[in-house]
Amino acid sequence: MGSMRVAITGSSGLIGSALARSLREDGHQVVRLVRRPPREPDEVGWDPRRQWVDTAGLADCTAVVHLAGAGIGDRRWTDAYKRELRDSRVLGTAAVAEAVAALDTPPRVLVSGSAIGFYGDTGDRAVDEDAPPGHGFLADLCQDWEDAAGAAREAGVRTVFARTGLVVARGGGAWGRLFPLFRLGLGGRLGGGGQYWSFIALHDHVAALRHLLDHADLSGPVNLTAPEPATNREVTAAMGRVLRRPTPFPVPAAALRLALGEMAGDVLGSARVLPRRLLDSGFAFACPRVEDAVRAALGPTR
């Protein structure tokens, strides 16, 4: 595909900023949707709460990548924060999908963020995109989040749901908070350690998003997770090896529940999610194993 004009929401976040950088380095034009008054020529205003988007700024876009939403792991899940998590995703996605549908010449593709929380706790059972939704707050949220993109699909825009796993990166997200703990020698397996974590290196995540933009045959849900989900025990061992720190002490499940509240169920839960559709479409992972991903996160920033 030649030069693209790509609009991104959430472009100041961990993934959005890395995607914008990657696209620009390859000569593509990036338009950033911002919630404050636009200040730069590449910025376009939007307000997810009011469900408003300055659609003029989306004109001539080849693709829209919608990544905005309050951080799942940023705060304890009070009722108020759960409302914010839901509204920021569902209202924001509806606003973007309706703006895309209203354009005279819609973009070729909308890639809308989602999460492997869709599947709930899968124990040690491996699931791919054909699996039904799970149970619990996150699973319900992910279903509503994906459903909110209906206007774009109905307008005939190829719509892809990037169901993201745990992104292994130093600069943010849940994993970003693990690195300092392990550096201090405070890292340890969580509870029993047998639960599966479906991770993906930041570099692979950005490459996968680019792959979704370029592959016209992909639509609907696509799991953005590495092909070899690791148990929490394996993650702990890999972090300890790479950082050269001992990891002797398990973090008791009770302490996590106290610290994290309802979110502990998702941290202690198990999601063994496989990227079948990415692999079937020819995507090659640079960091298929958790140790590769941890080393990449500590290497020079890309």
If you had to describe this structure to a student in words, what would you say it looks like?
The longest helix is centred in the N-terminal third of the chain and has 24 residues. Helix content is 38%, strand content 18%. The protein is of the alpha/beta class. The relative contact order is 0.14. β5, α2 and β6 form a beta-alpha-beta unit. It has one domain: Rossmann fold. The strands form four sheets. It has an eight-stranded mixed β-sheet, sandwiched between helices. The protein has a two-stranded parallel sheet with strand order 7-14. A two-stranded parallel sheet has the order 9-11. α7 runs parallel beside α11. It is built from eleven helices and 14 strands.
Order of helices and strands: EHEEEEHEEHHEEHEEHEEHHHEHH
Estimate the helix proportion, in percent.
Answer: 25-40%
Estimate the mean pLDDT confidence: 90
Rg computed from alpha carbons, rounded to a whole number of angstroms? 19 Å
Q: What is the fold-level CATH name, i.e. the topology?
A: Rossmann fold
Domains counted in the coordinates: how many?
Answer: 1
The CATH class, by name, is: Alpha Beta
Q: Which CATH architecture?
A: 3-Layer(aba) Sandwich
How many E-type strands? 14
Low-pLDDT residue spans: none
